[in-house]
Amino acid sequence: MRGMLAGLAAGVLASLAWWARPVSAKAQDLDPLKVDPQHYHLEFENSWIQVIRCRIPPHDKVAMHHHAYGSMIVLLTDQNLMQTEADGTRHEAHRKAGEVFWGEPTTHMGENISDQPYEYVRVDIKAAGPR
């Protein structure tokens, strides 16, 4: 039991250190709010979170961009995307409106492969808040 708790604590500390790492200059250059302002809009920001709304019209693509933080994502519409990772790997993502899920930091681009608009809200976790 003691070893399991120590392992859990070490994992949590490693995760926090990874989240708090400095963002590289290249990643900062790929901020979705800067590289694709027609699709990404800042809704709210403070020291702890950043809330971004993304709207992608049918069959439209977003620019390659980097999400620097782990995030809670809330789908406002169905998600039907072709995702392209920074290394060129492609995969489809399909989820239903109303789903909420966790998104890891990533560099990618997406294409709405449906005939309907796609919209979501992303709550980026920048730092732990006050207790």
Instruction: Estimate the global geometry from the Cα principal axes.
Output: globular
- Biggest sheet record: 5 strands, antiparallel
**SSE ordering:** HHHEEEEEEEEE
Query: From the helix content, strand content and strand pairing, which structural class follows?
Result: alpha+beta
Q: What integer is the average pLDDT?
A: 85
How much helix is in the residues? 10-25%
Seen as an oligomer or otherwise, the chain set is single chain
Low-confidence stretches: 4-25
Strand order of the largest sheet: 1-2-9-4-7
Q: Total helix count?
A: 3
Instruction: Indicate the radius of gyration in whole angstroms.
Output: 16 Å
Cα end-to-end separation: 28 Å
Fraction in beta strands: 35-45%
How many strand elements? 9
Report on the architecture of this protein:
The structure is a single chain. With 131 residues, the protein is an alpha+beta fold. It has three helices and nine strands. It has helices spanning 2-19, 25-29, 32-35, and strands spanning 40-45, 49-56, 65-67, 71-75, 79-85, 90-95, 100-103, 106-112, 118-125. It has a five-stranded antiparallel beta sheet, with no helix packed on it. The protein has a four-stranded antiparallel beta sheet with strand order 3-8-5-6. Strand 1 and strand 2 (49-56) form a beta hairpin. The model is unreliable at 4-25 (pLDDT under 50).
